[in-house]
Every structure is written in C-alpha cells, then in structure tokens.
Design brief:
This protein is an alpha/beta fold. It is built from ten helices and seven strands. It is 38% helix and 13% strand.
Length: 294
Amino acid sequence: MDTQRFSRIANSLKSASISSVTQTADALRREGKEVLVFSIGRPDFDTPEHIKAAANDALAKGFVHYTHNRGILPMREAVAAYLKRQNGLDYDPKTEIMITAGAQEALMLCTHALLDPGDEVLVPSPGFLLYYSSIPMLHAVPVPYVLKEPDYDWDGAPVSDRTKLMIFNNPNNPTGKVFSAEEMRDAADFVKKHDLLAISDEAYDRLLYGDARHRSLAAEPDMRERTLLVGSLSKTYSMTGWRLGYVAGAPELIERLARLQQNYMLSVTSFAQYGGAEALNGPQECVETMRRAF
C-alpha cells in the first residue's frame, strides 16, 4: 500500500531495536539454540504465586468488568502505601494516583498531557528509547542531556525558552546509575531554577546493589507538586506481561491523565490490578530473592 495513505506518525516510527533483538533471540531459541538476551528488561522468574493467586481469586469472584479510569481503589491504596514506605511521600489514593498499563503507558500519558508542538523536553543520554520516540509524536522535541562518563553523573542540561519538561530516570536505564543525594538535590534545584515540570521514572527503584540508595525526585524540597512520579511492577515482581504501572502527582495533573486514559484505553485490566495490590501489600521476600539472583 502507498505509504502516503498512512499518517506522518505511523511512517516516522521505526521498530524498536530492543524488540527486534528479543524477537531474533526467541527465534534462535525455537531452533534449540541457547541464547542469553541482554536487550529487554524481562526477569526470568515466574510471577510469585501469592500474586497470581490474588488475580485468580478476583477472576473467580467475577471481577471481570471495567474499572475506574484511575484504577481500582485497593490498587491505588496499595501504591500510596508503597510510596510512603519507599520514599516517605504522601499521596491521596483517590485524587493523586492512577494505575496504568505499565510504566510505558504512564510515560506516554504524561507527555501527552504536558506537551504542545514545539515544546522541548530534556531527556537523559544514555536513556530509555521510548523517551526519544514518543516525544516527536507530539511534534515536541527531545533534547538530550549527557550523563557524564565514566560514572554517568548528572551534570546539568541545555535549556532554552522552549524547554518545558525534564525526564529524570533513577535508577537509570540502561546504565544502572543510581544518583547520589547531592546529584538529586542539584537536579531538583535545576528544575526549580528554570521553572520546569518533571517526570521521575522510577521503574527500577528496588534493584539496588552495594551502598546504593534509591531517592525520588518528587521527595526533594518543593518538587512534589511539579513532579509526576512513574513506577512499575514489571521488574520488581516479575510481572512484565501483566502491564501494571502507576503515576502519582498533584490532583490537577492526575485528573488530566485520567481524561486521557478514558479516551485511550478506558481502564486497566480489572483482575490484574487485584494481583498488583497483593504484590505491593503482600510478602516481599520474593523481591529480595530475585534481586540477589540478578
């Protein structure tokens, strides 16, 4: 078919290299070859049994229908409790948290809610490929800020009069960099100095080693109201196929994300969210077992 029949967005998007490498590896495995895949963040573990049991129980009880655009309240309450334990942050589960189809959809919703054509977004380099592919879909511009080698330290970013948003990823994908308390303060001061909004991508917040300690950008002074905190259950609980993530932020920001959710996909899978609530509320020994194995 003539490519002119397709939209500019559809023609401009390319297949993600992560997916291509993973699909090639899967094909080789089907041929009986042993392959180690370093392309995609997919734990080799099964989802822990108590999480699967909670989802199965929800199915058995008939929780199979649409949910609130923001997600079931028990799941939002579980996220709120988790963020309090993990980061010392208080979020109202009714107005300041939304459940999404993985952190990837959360990131897409955040950028779609905040960006207009011509806006510039500061994105880490090296950084997650979605940052670089999703922003141009909105006719906005991703502007890389280089994480300084050899330790991939935060070292500021280029700002113009069109800069509106900064994406901060801690721990960083793909480098594994965990930013220090000083770097977090500097990044927060930078955002406030230039009156920016921030997306704090914290999908790997539990995969820490040595003396590393996770810190949320939203927990820095005066950053909570200008930050959308994005998290995921995929890595921590080996739930990549469940597609469960979340975003926390000020009520007016979450309200707009919920409107987008209503129009894009209505709501996240109902029974999966009951499994997600159990993951966050239930036994956490499985997290440490997997972390040590990794």
